């Protein structure tokens, strides 16, 4: 049996047309985009074309798009860029949530370590960070709030606009990590009312190693990489032209038929859940079931077994237990802990995420594999 890939939240394959777009910039168009000769200008023009495509996808202006090496760098630039415009000795307050990706959580704790104040707000049992909870955490010295747009483990979509409005009512900047939501649901920056927004290329069918930080005009950041002043002085370093071109093509693809794609992904996700529940029964629970979720993400808890053991029994199936960034241990993930999920239930968590190249046949085969593995493990558990 061929491998079945249901781990699109961890990373996506490079789309064929994305590979085609970037290929010439890996060979004949190898110039430095800062050079004034023909080859350099061709690369510079390609970068600006991609910047325009990404700006269009977000409803932003081209001068608000900053290219980085990845989503993690974008998050670091957003948080450190705001907070470190003033010295830690002067003070300043940062607010994040308990369900953030490590790219936010670890960065925030570093800023706390060097002298800034940090508040980590909780989510409710559905995995939602409520706007009033964030508002209650704001202080006169709060400089920035960062709440992810959609959780990478559960797919739960956060009320970003309401949170942003609470921040802006007190003249506080707001950032969202949209690595999981871009290309799956609408991420227009004016609709979300955000000051900064993070994109990771490898989540939207581009290569690993390229990202974007949207920085609204008028927001001032301290650079975290210093050098020759590329990207309007916010991110020094010769631009990764092939990957930037790739990300521009991915943005164009993601912008086309977004709603239709979301509907298709949701049908596949729901088909998978229906097949699993019919076999496992009502004890198969969905994390974030009562909240708005990404159309492609199904985080479920199989009863009586360990999610790692389940996936070990299905080597043909590529999926995750919780977040791929936390794989390798059987501890309950921080997100599930924050939701207050019973550890005995949480240990059976498996995250199944579909994507552009998932077929109904893939879904049915995956369901059969998971059901057979669950039945085998459950029987062994009962024997013991």
Q: Characterize the largest beta sheet: strand count, sense, and whether it forms a barrel.
A: 7 strands, mixed
Total strands: the figure is 12
Q: What is the molecular shape? A: globular
Q: Could you name the ranges where pLDDT drops below 50 across 5 or more consecutive residues?
A: none
Average pLDDT reading: 95
How far apart are the first and last residues' alpha carbons, in Å? Answer: 31 Å
SS class: alpha/beta
The CATH class of the largest domain, by name, is Alpha Beta
* Corresponding CATH architecture of the largest domain: 3-Layer(aba) Sandwich
Question: Helix proportion of residues, in percent?
Answer: 25-40%
CATH topology of the largest domain: Aspartate Aminotransferase, domain 2
Into how many domains do the coordinates divide?
2
Give the name of the CATH superfamily of the largest domain.
Type I PLP-dependent aspartate aminotransferase-like (Major domain)
Q: What topology, given as strand order, has the largest sheet? A: 2-8-7-6-5-3-4
Helix run count: 13
Strand content: 5-15%
Q: What value does the Rg take, in angstroms?
A: 21 Å
Pattern of helices and strands: EHHEHEHEHEHEHEEHHEEHEHHEH
**Assembly state:** single chain
């Amino acid at each position: 049996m061929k491998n079945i890939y249901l781990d699109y939240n961890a990373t996506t394959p490079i789309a064929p047309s994305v590979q085609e777009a970037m290929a010439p910039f890996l060979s004949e168009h190898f110039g430095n985009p800062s050079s004034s000769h023909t080859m350099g200008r061709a690369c510079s023009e390609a970068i600006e074309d991609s910047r325009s495509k990404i700006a269009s996808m977000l409803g932003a202006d081209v001068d608000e798009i900053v290219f980085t090496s990845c989503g993690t760098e974008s998050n670091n630039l957003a948080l450190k860029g705001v907070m470190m415009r003033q010295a830690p000795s002067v003070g300043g307050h940062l607010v994040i949530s308990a369900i953030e990706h490590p790219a936010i959580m670890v960065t925030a704790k570093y800023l706390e370590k060097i002298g800034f104040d940090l508040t980590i707000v909780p989510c409710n049992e559905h995995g939602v960070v409520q706007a009033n909870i964030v508002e209650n955490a704001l202080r006169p010295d709060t400089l920035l709030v960062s709440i992810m747009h959609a959780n990478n483990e559960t797919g739960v979509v956060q009320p970003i606009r309401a949170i942003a409005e609470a921040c802006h009512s007190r003249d506080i900047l707001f950032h969202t990590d949209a690595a999981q939501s871009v290309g799956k649901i609408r991420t227009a920056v004016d609709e979300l009312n955000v000051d900064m927004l993070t994109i990771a290329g490898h989540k939207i069918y581009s290569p690993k190693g390229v990202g974007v930080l949207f920085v609204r005009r008028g927001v001032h950041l301290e650079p975290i990489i210093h050098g020759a002043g590329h990207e309007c002085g916010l991110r020094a370093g010769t631009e990764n032209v092939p990957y930037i071109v790739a990300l521009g093509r991915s943005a164009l693809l993601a912008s086309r038929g977004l709603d239709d794609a979301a509907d298709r992904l949701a049908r596949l996700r729901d088909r998978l859940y229906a097949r699993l529940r019919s076999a496992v029964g009502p004890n198969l629970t969905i994390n974030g079931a009562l909240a708005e979720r990404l159309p492609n993400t199904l985080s479920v808890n199989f009863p009586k077994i360990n999610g790692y053991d389940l996936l070990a029994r299905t080597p043909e199936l590529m999926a995750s237990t919780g977040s791929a960034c936390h794989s390798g241990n059987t501890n309950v993930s921080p997100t599930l802990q924050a939701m207050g999920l019973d550890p005995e239930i949480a240990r059976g968590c498996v995250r199944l995420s579909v994507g552009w190249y998932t077929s109904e046949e893939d879904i049915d085969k995956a369901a059969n594999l998971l059901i057979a593995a669950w039945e085998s493990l459950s029987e062994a558990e009962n024997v013991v």
